[in-house]
Specification:
- The chain is mainly α and about 80 residues long.
- The protein has one domain.
- The protein contains four helices and two strands.
- The chain has a two-stranded antiparallel ribbon.
- A hairpin with a 2-residue loop joins strand 1 (about 20) and strand 2 (about 20-25).
- The longest helix has 18 residues, at about 25-40.
- The radius of gyration is 19 Å and the shape is flat.
- The termini are far apart.
- About 10% of the residues are buried.
């Protein structure tokens, strides 16, 4: 009865899926803003900014996979809570 009865669980069930190394919503938003800025200005001046932002998105996602979800909830409900 002392046997280990646990089975390994696929990481897909317990981890948030990522796109290009980062959380899905910020990566897609960053990509779309980059495309819009390129087409609107017809230059590539803003491209390094979006690469740096993508690096920050990846860094924050690696530290905490739910960082952007928690940040969005905080910004949504900050008027209701004092802390």
């Amino acid at each position: 009865m002392d046997e280990e009865l646990r089975q390994p669980i696929c990481k897909g069930f317990i981890e948030e899926p990522t796109v290009a190394g980062g959380a899905r919503e910020p990566v897609v938003l960053n990509f779309l803003l980059g495309l819009i800025s390129i087409f609107a200005t017809a230059t590539f001046y803003f491209l390094p900014i979006f690469f740096v932002l993508h690096g920050f998105i990846i860094k924050f996602t690696k530290e905490d996979p739910f960082f952007f979800l928690v940040l969005r909830n905080h910004l949504t409900y900050k008027d209701y809570y004092d802390a």
